[in-house]
Fold each of these.
Amino acid sequence: MAGRETLTMIKPHAVENGNMGNILAMILDAGFTIKAIKMVKLSLHQAKEFYKIHEEREFYGPLTEFMSNGPIIAAILEKDNAVEDYRKFIGSTDPTKAEEGTIRKLFGKNTRENAVHGSDSDENALIEADFFFSKMERYYN
Ligand code: ADP
Ligand code: MG
């Protein structure tokens, strides 16, 4: 059975542009519950750890620089089929290929600065949630 949790980040440019409220409102309207949330500025070291799975990719350096450049919002979202539904809701990695009405279509600037992160599997959702949040910081079950 699919898990009920996914991990999202609102990326630095979207926070800086003042879009965090709009994005969080859309997330709630789409039926996700916020189980944990915080604003945090990642160090370059932390960004590299979070995206370690991509360390061989050519975009790893610029991505981790960008992600540690300003504060982000990290949140654990809860909903049936959370990982898949959230990926659908945010749209394709490249905002120009994302469907109309998706978060990345609306708020993404380019393939790197694509407004939000969404976990790609239940297993990674758990790992990513543990990266940001202790048990004490989680609510609603
Ligand atoms: P997603 O976030 O859709 O799961 P990936 O896991 O493949 O995408 O990549 C992680 C992040 O790395 C993307 O959200 C994006 O910020 C960045 N990224 C991915 N592919 C590219 C690319 N070709 N050029 C620049 N940045 C990229
Ligand atoms: Mg990914």
Note: Residues 3 and 123 are 9 Å apart (CA to CA).
Amino acid sequence: MSRSHAKLNNGVLIPSIGLGVFKTAPHETVLSVSQAIEMGYRHIDTAAIYGNEQEVGLAVKHSSIARKDIFVTTKVWRDDIATGNTVKAVEMSLSRLGFDYIDQMLLHWPEPSGRLAAWRQLEVLYSEGLVKSIGVSNFMVRHLRELINHANILPAINQLEIHPFLQQRDVVEFCNQINIAICAYSPLAKSKGLGHHLVKHIADRNSLTPSQVLLSWNLTKGRVVIPKSTNPTRQQDNLDALNVELNEEDIHLLDSLEDGLTTGWDPRQVA
Ligand code: NAP
């Protein structure tokens, strides 16, 4: 398997770099996603709660690339998980995107009431072919253990905040053992990781940018990454991380940066 894709446990290939669109305003999204697709991105990560699925769908529809060659992930929001409305939520996402299938649908959060029932609904949608792969996001080991005890279908992926400052080693190891792929969100620590002196040092001595160093650290470990940028120069910079090879010494140095930094919400306390 080349570095450009990861293979999910149901055989589906997912491009290893995707464009994240959290906080990309709807009026910017069509242009931002269109330019990214022209540049070579083949994977876009959105969510119902981001409010820009419609614009992502338009950019995909009007691109010169066939729909089947662009991988789109979206997510069921917490309220829909909690109220038993996952089927309806997926139908709404399909409608906003203007697609007849979604490449990957995730439960956005391990909502204590409703996550198991929501997974059952995703399983039905998967068996009907409306979603081509199903997974979870922000699930810790105990949430995964519980899910696996109830599920007929193993999640294909777990999307988590992961960068050298927050490595989530217990969840990653658990997922590796049972063949759940890992997608690293906020892989630049929402840009907070770019100024760290060690990251800058490794970038300088390899003629890379700090962003490429952080993305390559995750890619080297076989994970999918979904950096967000609306800026075309930065989007290209991030996409080029696919061709970066860090040596073992640099990877070990980055491994030493764990300090528990979360840049968004933190699912570690969710029952
Ligand atoms: P991120 O990708 O770690 O960082 C994005 C920030 O870095 C933006 O401010 C961006 O600014 C800047 N940036 C990007 N590339 C850069 C570069 N090459 N050089 C300098 N600055 C750069 O953070 P994120 O948006 O939180 O995470 C990425 C994606 O993960 C989201 O968009 C979303 O799709 C997903 N996500 C999922 C969850 C979940 O719960 N499942 C939670 C959070 C995020 P500009 O746009 O100005 O370039």
Note: The chain has a mean pLDDT of 97.
